[in-house]
Amino acid sequence: MTNEELVALVRLDTDDLVEPYLSSDAAIIQWLAEAEQEACIRSRLIYDATTPEVCSIAVTAGTSVYPLHESIIDIARIAFTPTGGTAVVLYLTDMVEQDRTHPDWRTTVDVPRQAIHLDTSLRLGCIPSTNGTLALECYRLPTSYADESWAPEIGAIHHRHLAQWALYRCYSRPDPEIMNPKKAEIALSEFTRVFGLRPDAGLRRETWANRPQFNKAVW
C-alpha cells in the first residue's frame, strides 16, 4: 500500500474524513513510519546482507571497536575477510563468555575469530593484526524518513496492520475531540497480536550471543 492509501485507511477507521481534519497527514505518516519501526523491532521483518552502508565495515589493523549503522537491531552473521585473504565467519559472543574462554583477548593481536555486538558498536574478539572487511547479515529498521515521500519497506502483507499503531497513537492524544483510551487499547492489542510483544533489549542480545552457529540442512 502507498502512504496515501494507508493515510486514507487511518482516516476511515477514525472517521476523520472531513476537513479540517483532526489529524494531519504529516502526523499520520509519522505514526505509520513509527509503526513500521516498531513492527521491525518486534518481528525482525527486514533482513539485510547487501546494503553497503549497513552491512560492510572496513577494519583497520590495531582497531577493535567499530560503530554500527543506526538501523541495525540484531546481527545474525559476521564474516571477516583479511585483505588478500579468505573470509572467516566470526563467532558472536558477549563480554562474559569472551573473558571466560579468552582471558587475554583485550590485548591479543591476531586475526579475529569472535565479535561482540554492543548497543551501537561492534567489538572484535582481539586486536586485529591485519586490515580487512567485515560483512554483516542483520535485522534492521527501515531506513526511509517519515516525510511526504515515505513508503513502507516491509512486505505488503503487513501494511494494513501498521494502521493499528497509528490508531493507537491517534486515540492516545490528549485531545478531547479524539482521545479514546478504550479504542487505543484495542488498537494496540491488535498490533501486538500481529507483530508480537516488544522484546527486552538485554534478553534479545543474550539470546543471539553465544548461540550455536551452523549451516542448516534443508531436505
Can I get a quick summary?
37% of the residues lie in helices and 21% in strands.
Description:
The chain is α+β, with helices and mostly antiparallel strands and 219 residues long. It folds into 2 domains: 3-45 and 142-199, no CATH class; 47-140, no CATH class. Helix content is 37%, strand content 21%. It contains 7 helices and 10 strands. It has helices at 3-14, 25-43, 52-55, 95-101, 156-171, 181-195, 201-208; strands at residues 47-48, 56-59, 65-67, 72-82, 88-93, 109-110, 114-117, 121-124, 127-128, 132-140. The strands form 2 sheets. Strands 1, 2, 3, 4, 5, 7, 8 and 10 form an 8-stranded mixed sheet that branches. Strands 6-9 form a two-stranded parallel sheet. Helix 1 crosses helix 2 (25-43), helix 1 packs across helix 5 and helix 5 (156-171) runs antiparallel to helix 6. The longest helix is centred in the N-terminal third of the chain and has 19 residues, at 25-43. The chain is elongated and about 65 Å long. Residues 213-219 have low confidence and may be disordered.
